[in-house]
Amino acid sequence: LQKELLKYKQEARNLQGIKIPSPQDALQQRLIQQDASVLQLKQELLRASMDKEELHNQNVDLQRKVEERNRLLAEYKKELCQKDRHLQQHQTKLDEMLRQLSEASYQQVDLERELEHKEALLAHCMKREAEE
Q1: Could you report the per-residue pLDDT of 69-118, keeping only the tens digit for each?
Q2: C-alpha closest to that of 79 among 68, 90, 87
Q3: Vertex 53: Cα angle to 52 and 58 (nearest 5)
Q4: Residue ranges of domains in the chain
Q5: What 3-state class would DSSP assign to 121?
Q6: Buried b / exposed e across 67-100, counting CB within 10 Å, b at 16+?
Q7: What are phi and psi of 24, to 5 degrees?
Q8: Can you spell out the DSSP letters for 43-91?
């Protein structure tokens, strides 16, 4: 009976074109699926590693740019401080020159008054002498 059953099963398979998987075939199919899953996970891990490396490189590049900008900023601040010192020195000199100019102006006014007074005295003396 068992031989006949196997024979009919074989005929049924041949007629339907359906293969009934054996436990060995099922195990092999499961291993193939697991291998495919492992391969997919490895690919994802590789992509993640590459992305991580790219992000690391971008981070290093950005860090370098930040350091360069900080260096330039420090240089600009140094230059600005020097220019501020020069400006302060020039402002001090300008204030001193303005003070001196103001003093000279007052002296000029005093000298002009004195000259006018002496010219008036001279004119008066000349007038007296002419009268005499």
Answers
A1: 999 999 999 999 999 999 999 999 999 999 999 999 999 999 999 999 99
A2: 87
A3: 95
A4: 32-103
A5: helix
A6: eeeeeeeeeeeeeeeeeeeeeeeeeeeeeeeeee
A7: -65, -40
A8: HHHHHHHHHHHHHHHHHHHHHHHHHHHHHHHHHHHHHHHHHHHHHHHHH
Are 29 and 21 contacting, i.e. CB atoms less than 8 angstroms apart?
A: yes
The mean of the pLDDT values for the chain is: 92
What integer pLDDT is reported at residue 19 of this predicted model?
58
Interatomic CA distance for residues 2 and 41, integer angstroms: 46
Greater pLDDT, 67 or 2? 67
Retrieve residue 102's tokens.
């103001």
What is the model's pLDDT at position 112?
97
